[in-house]
Every structure is written in structure tokens, then in C-alpha cells.
Amino acid sequence: MTANAPLGPLVSRFYGRRRLIHEVTELPPFQTLIDEHAGDVMAVCRGAVGRGDAEDCFQETFIAALRAYPKLRENGNLRGWLITIAHRKAIDHHRARGRRPLPVAALEEVAVSDPEPADGIWEAVGALPPKQRAAVTLRYASDLPHAEIATALGCSPEAARRSLHEGLKRLRKELA
Amino acid sequence: MRDSLNRLARRAADEGLLDVAYATADSPFGPLLLAGTPRGLVRVGLPNQDAGELLGDLATRVSPRVLEAPARLDEARRELDLYFEGKLTEFDLPLDWRLSKDFRRRVLRAIGRIPYGQTRTYMQMASSAGNERAVRAAGTACGTNPLPLVVPCHRVLRSGGGLGGYGGGVEMKEALLRLEGVLGS
Questions:
Q1: CA-based nearest residue in chain A for residue B6
Q2: pLDDT digits 0-9 by tens, A99-132
Q3: Is the CATH number of domain A29-175 1.10.10.10?
Q4: 20 to 30 A from A145, CA-CA: which of A95, B77, B156, B161?
């Protein structure tokens, strides 16, 4: 199916649509995502949950991605997609740890080997509505620019900026 | 990182998320690419075929959940090794036939029954598949064989005695026939 079908606007519109439908199935082999982005995902996990739990976060991220992959509707920014999942898994992890009483020694170990943001921030981030939460973590834990956040979230850069702004406003209020 | 990725492949298989596992295997002709689904071996890539293209094709036609996970291909690799050493004359592997359809699949199944060290013609294969006049289609079935070596399309020759083509190159076809004692060395 070529993009430059020289058969008039109606026909090319038809082909355009066909091409879109076609692209739904045009996902690269999952192994290429691993080859290209495993390092980044591991880095995000280490940054978000600390070295000790990074491996779990990494596994959860790729298993969740693998589960969802065949239904993914666009392949424009697979790295952003993986990193968004990694952040969600990191937040799940922090939430679970918040609920589960941990032995003090283990807590200290984490704190010594890998300084993390002050207590309560991740819980507060985790409590944000999904879009705001994703925008905040993508911006501040992964350093993604607004345009990439927008692609990762599947919205316009304006909407991404707004989610980020709303999320930060709410966090300031929560943590004040 | 190696350990993490091995663990991931194992877990993907355990959770039923490893739709296509692949691995490379050495051969006297160069590296082979082997791919398997939970049903069986689905694709053998010959050394002159582009591995990236082949994996992309599997992602589109079978599932994009394609992972490098050699464990599922261990038995296929073992049998191929023995075959190249001349110590195995019949493969005993579960096969996943989904990449061939209808007439082509019938031709390939018939090819799968040609014994080691024997040859047939394209015309005989067309006839075994139920249409003796479809010689050209039988040739296409051989040419698009997703499971070369294991489904031994190298044992199919032209009626006049010519070797005919081979996906891995005619030299490879000749070498395989020599290995099986069909052609003198």
C-alpha cells in the first residue's frame, strides 16, 4: 500500500484510512523494544523505586507492556509508552509499600543506598488523577519534554501542559 | 541486564505471553533463525535470509509478541545439529503450519513425507497435493516454504533432472543433497 496513490483526493483519502487501519497491526517485534529501551526503563525504575526494588519494577513494566502490546493502536513513541508504564508500576510499588508495614531495617537500607524524595511525595503523586499523575512523573522523574509527554499520553502538548500544571497545583496544596 | 532479560523471557512464557520465541542456531552454512509458537516450530530462516525482515513478518502475521527466548527452540536446535552431522534422518518436532495455507500447505505436508536421501519432482508434489497440473504452484509452495530443512523442500527437483531453485541458494541445496547421499561428493 503506497502513500502516494495518484488517483485523486477521494481515493487517496480512502487509502489514507486504509493505511491507518493497516498501521494498527504494524508493530515491530517486541524484542526490538527490549533491545532499544531496556536500559532506559531500568534507569527509570532505579530512579523511582531505588536499586533494591528496581528489578521487580522492571519485570512488572515489561510484562504489563507485553500484555498490552498487541492492542496498542499506534507505534509512534514506544519509548514514551514504556516509560509511562514504568512510572505507573513505580507508583503502584510506592502505594503498596505505603500500605504494607516494612521492617525498619529495610527502610533504612533503602534510604542509605538511594536517597529518594521526601516522604509523602510519591504517595501524593500516586493520589493524583491518572493524567496529572502521568504528566508529573514523566516531566520530573524522566525529564521528558512537553511534546514527548503529550505523545506518551496521547493528547495535545497544550493538554499535557495543562495536566502538568493542574497536577503541580494540587501537589503544592496537598504537601503544604 | 542479561539475567533480567532471561527472567523476563521465562516469565513471559509462564504467563502465556510468549507468542513467538526465537533463537539463532549454528549450521555449516551460517546462522539459522528458528522461531516457535506454543504449537511448535513456525519458521526457519536460512543464512542468506534477513533476520530482521523475517521477525517483522512474524510480528505482522503471527503476533507482535516476539521475544528472543532460546529455551523453546532447544529441541529443534539439537535435531538440526544432528542432521548436519549426518546422524539424524527424520525430524521429530511439533510444527505450526499457520504460515502456509490451502494448496501450498498440502504441498508442504507432502514434502514432509519424502524420506531422507530420496527426491521427488515438482510435478509429483503437485499431484500429491491433489492437482497434478499445478506444477508452478507447487514450485511456489517450495519457494515460500516457511520451514526449510525440517520440511525438506531441497528434496524436490525439476522433472528433467535439474536441481531447481532453493531459498538458501542452489549451492546449499546441492550440499544438502550431497549430505544425504543423493549427489556424489
A1: A59
A2: 655 444 444 333 333 445 556 676 677 677 777 8
A3: yes
A4: A95
Between A43-52, A98-107, B104-113, the lowest mean confidence (pLDDT) is in A98-107
Q: List all residues 6 or more positions away from A59 whose beta carbon is below 8 Å from its beta carbon.
A: B4, B7, B8, B11
Domain-embedded: residue B165: yes
Q: pLDDT tens for residues B123-149?
A: 999 999 999 999 999 999 999 999 999
Residues of B in Cβ contact (< 8 Å) with A59: 4, 7-8, 11
Tell me, yes or no, whether B19 and B64 share the same domain: yes
Residue A104 near residue A63 (C-beta atoms within 8 A): no
Q: Let me know: does A27 contact A68? Beta carbons within 8 Å.
A: no
Compute the mean pLDDT over every residue in chain B, rounded to the nearest whole number.
95
**Residue % of chain B over a pLDDT of 70:** 99
The answer on B107 and B78 residing in a single domain is: no
Interface of B with A (CB under 8 A): 1, 4-5, 7-8, 11-12, 15, 17, 20, 22, 55-56, 58-60, 63-68
Is B153 a residue of the active site? yes
In a domain, B48, yes or no: yes
pLDDT at site A94: 80
Residue B49 has a CB neighbour count (10 Å cut-off) of: 15
**B66/A62 Cβ within 8 A:** no
- Both B74 and B114 in one domain: the answer is no
pLDDT of residue B30: 97
Least confident of A13-22, A45-54, B27-36, B89-98: A13-22
A73 touches chain B (CB under 8 A): no
**What is the pLDDT at residue B95?**
98
Q: Where are the beta strands (DSSP E) in B19-177?
A: 20-25, 32-37, 40-45, 66-68, 120-121, 156-157
Residue B129's domain comprises 102-179
Q: Which residues of B38-48 are buried (b: 16+ CB within 10 A; e: fewer)?
A: eebbbbbbbbe
- In a shared domain, residues B106 and B63: no
B15 is a domain residue = yes
Same structural domain, B59 and B20: yes
Contacts of B72 in chain A (CB under 8 A): none
* Structural domain boundaries in chain A: 29-175
SS3 B43: strand
Asked if A81 is an interface residue toward chain B (Cβ–Cβ < 8 A), one would say no
Q: Looking at the 3D structure of chain B, how many domains does it have?
A: 2
- Annotated catalytic residue, options B46, B142, B153, B179: B153
Q: Note whether residue B95 is domain-resident.
A: no
